[in-house]
Amino acid sequence: MKHAFYIYGSYAVITLVFAGVIAHSLLTFRRLTKALKS
Amino acid sequence: MTLYDLAHPSTIFRFCDKFLKPLAFLTLLAFAIAGYMAVNAPEDYQQGRTVLIMFIHVPLAWGSMAIYMLMTSAALGTLVWKHPLADVAAKAAAPLGAAFAFCCLVTGSLWGKPMWGTYWVWDARLTSMLVLFLIYLGLIALYNAADDPLKAGRIGAILTLAGVINIPIIKFSVEWWNTLHQPASVIRSGGSAIHPALLYPLLAMAVAFALLFFTLHFMAMRNELLARRLARQRSMEAFEVKS
Q1: Is the CB of B219 less than 8 angstroms away from the CB of A26?
Q2: Which pLDDT band holds residue B2 (cuts at 50, 70, 90)?
């Protein structure tokens, strides 16, 4: 596919960014619930 | 349920918790449908397959501006109506707006190189979008710098209202100035200039990104409410130890 680097690159960037946002949010939730229980 | 009932942190916490899983499922479903439509869309006669980048770039641009408008209404809620959860909503939305604006800039840049021959030009649309990203970063820094969340919320609301001037600048920059960025082709007087075969995947992707935002916003609001509950609990414990 022509310009595959730019196309896959774009999708890779948004996947990484939003996966990071989701992971951060879930880890924060776990940390906060643990802290509240202790 | 009235707006007054929703003003209670525990009510909104339960609301976020209850609707988070169905919303996450809907988001995944919407991305699956939109992805299928995008992959099967025909090639653009000029862009070829790079039109696939447009299916994510355009919804991200709309999203980053829509999130700022949501933060603006939350800022009014904080300053005018003093709604106790308005600053929670605004603070939770700021990093998401930054993520949307960042992804919009990067995908636009990756589209620009094969189509324009350059990753970046200092034209009005690109620069005003960069300014929006910087405003988001400023708001995140401000919300995290202050010890008192209520005070941070009020200052953040003022900065948000000051920065809203940038939204019409982004929208109309392609009409007010000569830009390399093309003029509006979907939301414009006279209807969309895009063929339905490319327009429908674009709109499907916009719906998927909107659902993604609401899912992430619910998660972030839930975390912010928990963080405030924890801070309150710790300050009460510290007070009990002192007395």
Answers
A1: yes
A2: low
